Each structure stands twice: as structure tokens, then as C-alpha cells.
Amino acid sequence: MREEHTIEPNELIESYLANEDIIYEATQIFDALSDYTRFQILSALCVSSKSVSELKDLCHVTQSAISHQLRLLRDRGLVFARREGQHVIYSLADEHVATLMRVGLEHAAETVSVEGE
Amino acid sequence: MREEHTIEPNELIESYLANEDIIYEATQIFDALSDYTRFQILSALCVSSKSVSELKDLCHVTQSAISHQLRLLRDRGLVFARREGQHVIYSLADEHVATLMRVGLEHAAETVSVEGE
DNA sequence: TGAATACATGAACAAATGCTCATATATTAT
DNA sequence: ATAATATATGAGCATTTGTTCATGTATTCA
Question: Is the Cβ–Cβ distance between B47 and A14 less than 8 Å?
């Protein structure tokens, strides 16, 4: 399966590639998704908004580690937080993120099943 | 324009999230796209296959830097190489990559235009 | 065969990353 | 007010990352 295929010239991509800022922003999103802990956080938030402690339990890391990663995700505009009593509830801020994760997981699922032969 | 929205429970995502290997593989793809040089390489290859020296000129980095990054991309199965005389021609190995870049660039374009107000 | 061109690769190093530990802040309950 | 719970954050540290420099290999041409 994987024969040599031609990818039709992608005009969208070409038009953006001239803009350094856009390329940099794009790499920042992918960077956010490139860490195991952050990927877990974001995918958990894809399903529903969650408090810091819920995320901490789901990801099996310390509270501090989660908070540091949440700060990074906040700074990059991928999640937003609202306080609710003692808790702070985080939500996905962007629908593109869910799309990216879906496509990334599809690719990953194929790769894993192929190499796992 | 960004009101609070609900993301419908994504069954695909949920089904993959149990598998650690798949999550790890996914983060590896995103990691490949998270570096400026690599992103340039991959987007150039989205348009058409290219030799190492063509990529070097496009990305404005040294030949060594390009080769090191190409090795990483090869190891992760995102590109493949074929020799053609003195040249080695690199091509995209996976169509998912183009999709990911397209979505990432769309997100980035919105973000940049919003913050640039 | 020898020189030139194209590409690959190991070592080294500075910079970035992700975590832990300690501590600070905010909210609620007593 | 005090204690308890939930979250945030700075400093420090080990690891990873991306590059450069030097050198190695492959191919073509004279």
C-alpha cells in the first residue's frame, strides 16, 4: 500500500508559507501537542472541561507539573480557565486543536499497527 | 466571535486514548512539526519532492543542519529518500502530514491576524 | 586515478524543556 | 481568625534539542 503519490499543489499552504509569523505560530501549536502530558491534558479537555485536580488524576503527574503545563497552554491560547469556587476549570479554547488531534491520532494508529505488524 | 462552545464527545479520540503507544506516536508527529526548520522542510515537500541542496537553500540553514533534520524525519517515517545521481531526493511519505499542516496553518493564520489586530 | 560536488554523520556545546521542591495565593469551612 | 483544600509559580536541575565543526562516504567528471 504506500505507492508514490503526488500531492496536488496546495495553494493554501503556499500562500501562508511566505509569512514567517504564521509559520512560527503554527510550530507553536504543534509544539503544544508534542508533549505526552500536554497531549493528555488537551485530549481530556476535548471530551469535556475539567478542574486541575481532575486533570492531575487523569495524567498521573504532580499538581505542580499540571499547573506548569496549563500555564503554557493558557499562554498560547489553547485553553482558558474560569474559577468555580475552590476549583479552576479549564476548557479547550480552540476547535482546531480537536481536529489536529483527530488527524494525528489517525496517522499514529496506522503507524503503530503497521510497525507492530 | 469565540463564545463558549461544546465539542461533541469524540468517540475516535476516546477510543485511541487508552493506547499509550498511539498517544506517544501522535506526540512524535507533532514534535516533528514543532520546529521551524522541519516545518519549512515538510511544507516545501508538500508542494513537490526536492533534493537536499534545494531544501538547504529554501530553509536558509547549513547543509549539515538540513541533513540532521532529514534524518530525524526519515527515522520517524515522515519522509523518504531516493538517490538520483549525485542528488538525494526527499519526498513526503504520508498524506496525513499535509492535512496536519493545513489545519495548523489555518489556526495560526487566525491567531496571528487576531493578535495583530 | 584524482578532483569536485552532494550528502551523511559523530562529537561537542549552548539553549530550551519538563520536572521537582518549596512556597505563595485564593477559597471555603470551622 | 485558623485550618484545610485547590491552584499557581519561582528556582534549581537533569535531560533533550538543534546547531556547528570536522570529517566520512558516494557519485560524477576530467
Answer: yes
